[in-house]
Amino acid sequence: MTPFVSEIVGTFLLMVLGCGVNANVSLQKTYGNGSGWIVITTGWAFAVYTGVVVAGPYSGAHINPAVSIGLAVAGEFPWTEVPSYILAQFIGAMFAALCVWLVHKDHFNATEDGDTKRGVFCTAPAIPNTFINLFSEVLGTFVLVFSVLYFTDAVLSTENVIIGLGSLGALPVALIVWGIGLSLGGATGYAINPARDLGPRIVHALLPLKNKGNSGWGYAWIPVVGPILGASIAAWIALAL
């Protein structure tokens, strides 16, 4: 795959499993209905792992505009490649949201609450507070990108033979995302990824959902600006250390 295609595919896999676990836990008459926050955070961690395993060898598996921007700020990724990566990430995220809707169409119809339906696609604050909600997204993304900047390859090299972890090398980022969700995700739903939130939010606005309510556009800037700020701060601090 080219890096562009890889970012589409990787982000699609991330989002189809991530929004999928949201749907499974939140929508009526699914087998996973009401199974809770542990299931959601675990599902998102496995979603990250799946996306990174597939996209990693071809694009580095950013699958997140904040990661692309953070790596560029840190000088580890060319700025000229950032727009194409972000475009690919949004394409993958939006197509995934559409697929999740199709799979769960009957369950969307069985669910009355519009906020619950919107929550399958995008995030919302548990308690609205603009500054604190923004800080939550900044901090969560800071943890993600700062950690990514300190990743090292787990390999053993001996007599010109390199032994790596293969697909298990994608596990650290999944564990970090899981930790962020468990520890910091309860305030805003931890978007920590502009494409993850804005792409599906646009799809939500376009879909013919029954009683869907509004798409939460008044909040929509926070899961975009917060992750970009958090990633940039992580890069600046990493450069200064």
Automatic annotation (TrEMBL):
Its main location: membrane. Keywords: Membrane, Transmembrane, Transmembrane helix, Transport. Pfam families: MIP (PF00230). Belongs to the MIP/aquaporin (TC 1.A.8) family. This is MIP family channel protein. One of its GO terms (molecular function) is glycerol channel activity. It is found in: Membrane. Signal peptide: none annotated. The lineage of its organism: Bacteria, Pseudomonadati, Bacteroidota, Flavobacteriia, Flavobacteriales. PROSITE patterns: MIP. One of its GO terms (cellular component) is plasma membrane. It comes from Flagellimonas chongwuensis.
